[in-house]
Amino acid sequence: MEYNIVKQHEKGKLHAIERIKALCDEDSFMEIYSGVRHNCTSFGMEKKDLPYDGVITGFGKINGRQIAVYAQDFTVQGGSLGLMHGKKIAELIDKAIEARCPVIGINDSGGARIQEGVDALCGYGDLFYQNVRASGSVPQISIIAGPCAGGAVYSPGITDFIFAVDKISQLFITGPKVVKSVMFMDISEEELGGASIHSHKSGVAHFRCDSENDCYRKVRALLDYIPHYYGDSFIQDNKYKFDAKKKGKQIAEILPENSRAGYDIRDVINCVTDDDSFFETSAEFAVNCVTGFAKIEGRSVGIVGNNPSGIGGVLDCDASDKIARFVRYCDAFNIPLLTFVDVPGFIPGPQEEQKGIIRHGAKVIYAYSEASVPKITVIIRKAYGGAYIAMCSKHLGADFVYAWPAAEIAVMGAEGAIGILYGKEMKDPAKAAEVAAKSAEYKTEIMTPNIAAKRGYVSEVIAPAETRTRVARSLEFLSRKHPMDAPLKKHGNIPL
Q1: Each residue of 365-381: pLDDT tens digit?
Q2: 80 pLDDT higher than 70
């Protein structure tokens, strides 16, 4: 098979076959459906022979394990998707479901093949249908390695993880030309839908990569953290390292003396998980929370944490969406969940209310409540109001909830509570001492984690240095957890 590799190199991009080889283990890729051609006989298409109809499909191995992969070839009719092009990909996904292996799509396409009319739309429809069938059955990973416009964006949008590459990836429903004709706005492809836009602002891309080779390296790394199909059992990596003495000292020094001061929740995560094992997802989006995968004693776990270094760790619309989707992914593939809580509440104000914080916040509650995997929660510091409940509290089915001694579990912070309960007294300077005493009493009698422990809402109050051991032993205990029978229904109706 001859490939127009030079044409891609002139654009600073790898060719489709080079991309597949860079992704797969050496000499493991086997192409299928290479003889497929389009069947369009209009608009001059009858005179065109499009090799493999513009998309290379096949299977190979990554880290010794089977995967299905396809790569659109922009040098063949702009990588445009027609009927047979779409059917090839759909057939590949269907076979991946049967073979129980991940599907990786490398997208580099100008969109629907206009010459094929409704047949091109059929090709997209077949593809979308198989994407949905595969969801929760086998992992689906999308690599955006060029333009991805119009209908082409919806297949990646359905998949589990999207990788974007700086200065190469573009995703948008309508391109700059349409935006200019409809909205009279001049905007570049990069400004409209580049890698930075979708990793930082829209949250569409879960990973932003410096180069194509960096992207393929990260995809290979991700596959070491996630099951390759529903029901897949993890093989424990016994190469893990963890310096308990060193990490125990570090974790005890993370919290600032001032309870209002911020810190990076990643410091806590790295003190509890195996050394250098945290693999963050959506790192640039909704920085007030952190999600990702890590290893604990060599086994994969999904991590969620409020991050006080990002707008105080509050829950807003974007953070809620980020957390809910990650939780549902972990639950779909039986990955245990470890949640670190330091949340002052859902963000107040008209802007987030008008964006639908009620609807978005409800997704977090729904996702955690629905999840039947082992769920362990560690309350680090603040856990206020509805946000406390939403962040995998005992009330939403957490198996074990541990709290540090500095934890504050209450409807709201002391200042807000005293302002409501003793508003009149606060206006009287003569009663300042009384108000101060009430504030101190609220902190010691209401907010302390010992109250929640007495009620059974907290499994144990632990020292920070105990966290790793508590979490590891709890995960070991829950390793054979079997979900209880759910109420009879087809499926729930998550707020979207």
Answers
A1: 999 999 999 999 999 99
A2: yes
List residues bridging with 390 in a β-sheet.
none
Q: What is the pLDDT of residues 412-449, one digit of tens each?
A: 766 766 667 767 777 778 777 776 777 676 777 777 89
The token pair at 152 is: 């082409």
Output the pLDDT for position 435: 67
- Which residues are marked as active site? 150-151, 386-387
Q: 330-347: per-residue pLDDT in tens?
A: 999 999 999 999 999 999
**pLDDT of the residue at 114:** 86
Give the Cα separation of 382 and 391 in Å (integer).
Answer: 11
